[in-house]
Structures are given as C-alpha cells and as structure tokens.
Amino acid sequence: MSAAPERDAPLSTGAKVGLSLAGLGVGSLGAFASVVAALVVLLALAGMPLFSVMGGSAEILWMLHPDAAYHHLRFIAPTVLDERFADNPVLVTIPLFTFVGYVLAEAKTPNRLVNTARTVLGWMPGGLAIVCIIASAVFTVLTGGSGVTIIAIGGLLYPALRKQRYTDSFALGVVTTGGSVGLLLPGSIPLLVYALVAHVDFLELFKAVIVPGVLVIVLLSVYAAFVGSRQNIDRDPPQLRPMVKALWEMKWELGIPVLLIVCLGSGVASSFDEAAGIVAFYVVVIEFLVYRDLDWKKDLVRIVKASMSLAGAIILILAMANALMNYVVDQHVPTKVLGFMLQIGIEHKWQFLIVMNLFLLMLGMLMEGFSAILVAVPLIVPFVADLGMRHPDEKMSPFQLAMIFLLNLEIAYCMPPLGLNLFISSFRFNRPISSLYKVVMPFIGILTIGLILVSYVPWYSNVAVAGDVAAAHAKAEKEGAPPRDAWMMECVQEDPTNPQPCSAEDRAKYPGGQMPTPAGAAAGATPDDGTDDAGVDIGCNPDFGPCPTADAGGK
Asked: Looking at 380-431, which runs of residues are DSSP E strands?
C-alpha cells in the first residue's frame, strides 16, 4: 500500500514571492484604479481561461462606457471580423504549423535530430552541449513550444550530457534554457502571432529574425565550447561516413525547410499559408508512409484532435484580444500611457529601451508568451512610433522592436523565480524548482548580452531586409508615389493604414506622407486631385468630376 501524499507541502520561495507580488498588484489595482479591473485580474490569476478574461473584459468595458450609446456587445466585433484579422493568412498558418509540430513530436524525429546533430557536431569542444542548443532551437520552431522541447529533446540529451561528464548544473542549465532559443527563428508560432498583432509583414519578419537568431545560438554555443574545454569533456572523433549516414537518415525532415523556401521562392505557393499546407501534407507523407513511425488508424485522428485543440485555443485568444483592443483604441489607452511616460521623463530611445526591457521581462515571467504579446504590443507600439516622430534619429524599425520583444520572452521563460521553463524542467527532471535558479543564471547572462546587442545595434535586426527597403523606395520613386511600403519597414507606425515618413529627408519630400502639391497650383483652387478634405490620398474617381491631367494647375 502506497504512502499517503503530503497534503500541506510548504510553498517554495519562488511561489511565495510570486503570490506576494500578485497580491500586492491586485490590491493596488483595486485601491487606486478599478475594483472591476482588480476582480478580472484576480480571476485570471485563479486560472480562468485567457479567452474568457479578454472577451469578458471587452464586454464589461463596453457596458461601462461613459456614453450609453456604446452599451452594446456588437462593439467587440469590428476588429475580430474585419479583413485585417479574419482574412489574415496567419490564422490558417497557425493550425497547419501546430499540426506539423505535433506529428514530428509524436514520430521519431527527436531521436533522429539528436543523433544527426551529435554525429555532425560531436567532435567540437562542447559538441554535445552545442547539439542540445541547436536541436532544442530547431525543435521549438517545429513544435511552437519550449515545454515540449524540454520534455522531448531535454529528456534525450540530459542523460547523454551527464554520461559525457558534464556537471549536473551545466547539463540542467543547457536543457532548461535551450527550449526557448527557437522563439527567435523563422517559423516560430510566437513570431507569427507577433506579426499578426503588430501588423508586420511576416515574410519580411522571417527574414529579419535570421541574424538575431543565429547571433543568440552562436553566443550560447561559444559558452558551451568554453565549458566543454574547461571541463575536459571527451570528444567524438570526426568520421565522415557516420556523418553522411546520419544526414541520410534524416534527409526527409531536412527537406521541410527546403520545401518551404522552394514553394515561396518559385511561386508554387502564392502565400505563406499555401506553403504551410504543402509542408503539412509533406510531413504526413514522410512520417506515415516513408518512415512509418506513425499509424493511420491509431495516430492520425488523435494527433489532429490534439493539435487543432491547441490551434483553436490560440485563435480564440487572438480573436478575444482583438475585441479587447477595439475598446483600448476607442478610449485612446495607448495615448494615455504615452502621456504618462512623457510626464515621468522618458523621452529618448535609451531611456525607453531600459524601461521596456524591464517591463517585458516582468510581464514574460507572469504571463504565457502569447498573452504577453497580446497585452504588451498594443501598448508599446504607439510609444515607439511617437518616439520616432519626435526624434527621427532615434526611430526604431518594427523588426528591431520584434527582436527585442521575443528576446525578452526567451529570457523571461528562464528567469527565476517564475519562468515557465523552470517549472517544466523541475517537473521533467524531478528537481526542486529553487535548485534551478542558480544553474540558469549563466545562460540568462548570455541571452542578456544578445538582448543588449540587438537593442542598441539596429544592424542585427535590419540587415536582412535592407535590400527590400531599398527596392520599395526605388519602386515608389519609379511610380511617382510615396514609398509607404518602405516606411512600414523602416520605422514603427502608429497607424498601419496611413504610414508616415521615417527620415527627415522623406518628411520634407512627402509632407504628411503625401505627394507634394504642385508648385503652380492656384491658391484657393479645389480640383478633384484625389485627396479628401484632410489631404489624405483617396485616388481620383471620374464619377465625381474630371480627373486632373499631368500638367493640371501647372499652366
């Protein structure tokens, strides 16, 4: 007969600190802001589903609107059903990539991935630790979650690291941290969600993320090589034949990124969601028919159910977040937050970066990654846009802001006392969570170095898309139109539907983001020049009068 479980296990220090901070925050919110808001936060902390919190908050806020004309639930719908959300290809891509990740996780892909990486890189100093970093990053991209990576890849590599005489603390640190590295690589689901919420072209974002992602992997790999050399870890001799054999065994999985690139580059797929559909079909074929790791009857329906449950939850949360943002925009909440930050003296980029990094770090520890993106992005983007408008030399590209955001999430996942990876690793390896605090600190330090480089050296985030920005400028110049596509990539825009110039030169050339008025236009004349009363370009419509000719007003 088994012993009865302990009923009143003492809380860990991290749990006590977290509960204390949460209680203080809820109490302060109720005392100084709103009892209703405090109640919503309390329900969220108690475990209410996130979509209920966001959708319910949107309903409550509209019902409490100062104007009685807004006391209708229909006001939560516009940003959920409009084309910018409902027609966004990301909504199709997320379920497809989630399904791909589940199939690969259920198959023997983790074993093949680890074996291949170990055979190819095992001869290097710290080779097996580098294998863990790279394999974890790739698997996180494929599955979309650091928790699955820690359980699958960490479970395979932790015993191997210990067998090669790495210290227990280093082995735990590398498997705990490795699960979050893949957030900063093309194809990760948090990257897709960020692109959707921040209105950034996700294909351009996938290009931009390559250099910062490789930078972080290189920094961690250099540290792993240093530890491997210092601890005199044995290395496997490089052997060409085993390397070729291991790569050959994994050739079908290695074809996944190649297929995605070929589909997008050759025009076989006209959009990213179509390419994702082709990749999903390819993965089903190789895992069910080629490798035969999975069985049609036993596994397919089960995997579809599990993956679509997760994908549906993500999309439902996104929909309710858009409903909540409808109210936030209507009440000019970002503008009020901006005014508060200006009042306390935050006026320059370096000041803002410090505050933003601390804010995102705390938010990432307290909230799941998708939730942090949905809550923070609408608050941060307007401030960054205003900062660029007031100080053109301190503007920030949307790609740099995305890299800073995701790197903060990577760090927050591992940060004591409440990092998500700490709880998952504690459960997987049966260790007290407090014992993991010290072992992850060197890796957090490495990630922080990467964050500083990305925050203060824009080149890392912008170099991969610099050619596209130049091409957008050249195309607009050739067409005689404002380079709005280029502005969307050059600096963060408060209103994506009406992008504004980013540089002082473009502001002088395109006042208000529009083509300049011809010098010879008669004062007081109001021809149908394709603009409305506010000077916004609406195009020329011959149904409302004659369109101006090329020399109209010039003679």
From this structure: none
Q: Is residue 227 in a domain?
A: yes
Cα dist from 350 to 269, 327, 450, 457, 504, whole Å? 42, 31, 16, 12, 20
**Averaged pLDDT, 334-349:** 66
Identify which of 399, 360, 351 has the alpha carbon closest to the alpha carbon of residue 380: 360
For 124-180, how does the pLDDT look when each residue is reduced to its tens digit (9 = 90+)?
A: 888 888 888 887 887 777 666 666 677 767 777 788 788 778 899 998 999 888 878
CA–CA gap between residue 27 and residue 18 (Å, rounded): 14
Q: What is the pLDDT of residues 465-484, one digit of tens each?
A: 999 999 999 999 898 889 99
Who contacts 182 (Cβ-Cβ below 8 Å, separation ≥6)?
Answer: 136, 137, 138, 139, 140, 141, 146, 149, 188
Nearest Cα residue to 418 out of 52, 145, 20 = 20
pTM over 0.70: no
Asked if 319 and 313 count as a contact pair (C-beta separation under 8 A), the reply is: no
| Domain total in the chain | 1
Residue 502 is assigned to a structural domain of this protein:
no
Closest to 491 (Cα-Cα) out of 368, 351, 394, 417? 394
Residue in 138, 104, 128, 125 with CA at minimum distance from that of residue 213: 138
Q: Which residues form the domain of 270?
A: 86-311
User: In this structure, is residue 384 part of a structural domain?
Assistant: no
Amino acid in position 448? T
In a domain, 143, yes or no: yes
What is the rounded CA–CA span in Å between residue 475 and residue 469? 10
